[in-house]
Amino acid sequence: MVFSCKKVPKELYNWQSLEVTATAYNSLKYQTDSDPNITAFGDSLRPGLKYIAVSRDLLKLGLRHNTPVKIDGLEGVYLVKDKMHSRWKNKIDIYMGVDIKAAKLWGRKKVCIDYGTPIIE
Q1: Which of 7-16, 71-80, 97-106 has the lowest mean pLDDT?
Q2: Which pTM was predicted?
Q3: Which top-level group of life is the source organism from (predicted)?
Q4: Three-class DSSP category at 111
Q5: pLDDT, tens only, 11-60
Q6: Which helix (H) or strand (E) segment is 80 a member of?
Q7: In Å, how far are 7, 38, 46, 77, 78 from 13, measured between CA atoms?
């Protein structure tokens, strides 16, 4: 019989895939409102953070506040920190700080995302 002292990391999330339309946004008054650094969830935005906004229909699929999201074509894990107007469907908006050029360069595209829903034990 073999025993090990090595701890195996426990998976915290069930990962699911979804194809969405992705655009980009900046924290600028003319793109949002009079307080562009505060999200609909009440979080503060700062350039350099990996945040996204989601259309409200995606909230029902499990993309809730602080859900981790991996976006094809981008490095790292993004967190859901904002929600979009109810007119949008099956859409994410990637936060790009104040870099208008990067947001315009991203444009609008269909991407595959993976998002984690917590495993409850």
Answers
A1: 7-16
A2: 0.85
A3: Bacteria
A4: strand
A5: 889 999 999 999 999 887 666 666 778 888 888 888 899 999 999 999 99
A6: strand 78-83
A7: 18, 27, 26, 13, 14
